Amino acid sequence: MNKFVQFIVDLEENCSLHAAFEKIQNLPFVKNVYLHTKKVLEIADRKHKYQIPCEDIVFLQAMGNYTQVLTKERSYCFSCTLKKLLQKLPAEFFIRPHRSFVVNKMFVRTFGKDFLETTTGESIPISRRKKVSVEVA
After folding, report:
1. Exposed / middle / buried, residue 23 (Cβ in 10 Å: 0-12, 13-18, 19+)
2. Which residue ranges form the domains of the chain, and what is each CATH number?
3. In CA terms, which of 11, 35, 56, 62 is 20 to 30 Å from 21?
């Protein structure tokens, strides 16, 4: 910890505060702490590693052994089951209204008798067995 404090003191003496914060953010230790404090879905594909912030995820849709992750900006498709991805997600942000869908609570606009609508306009079905748990959430 003393090395870290000395590093910050040296940065403040040699550069502006803004530049010092940019250098601190790139330290591996700080990146690791940031990832653990911010809720991030980490998925490794064959070629890439993705870190998708949970607050950006609108919903996940199962497609056999693949899962589509729809965010505010783009859509991802991963070779992973919905069940495995659900274990990586924080339960306080997400609900599962249907066996094929997991929805971020922050993006639910309305819900009716057998569907819910997201703020992006998608209609997600609600299964009969999950209706009570969706209404409680």
Report:
1. middle
2. 2-36 (no CATH), 52-136 (2.40.50.1020)
3. 56
C-alpha to C-alpha distance for 97 and 115, rounded to whole angstroms: 8
Cα gap 12→14, rounded to integer Å: 6
pLDDT in tens, 98-122: 999 999 999 998 888 889 999 999 9
Task: Assess whether pLDDT exceeds 60 at residue 22.
Answer: yes
25-36 per-position pLDDT tens digit? 666 665 555 444
Long-range CB pairs of 1-7 (<8 Å, 24+ gap) are 4/29
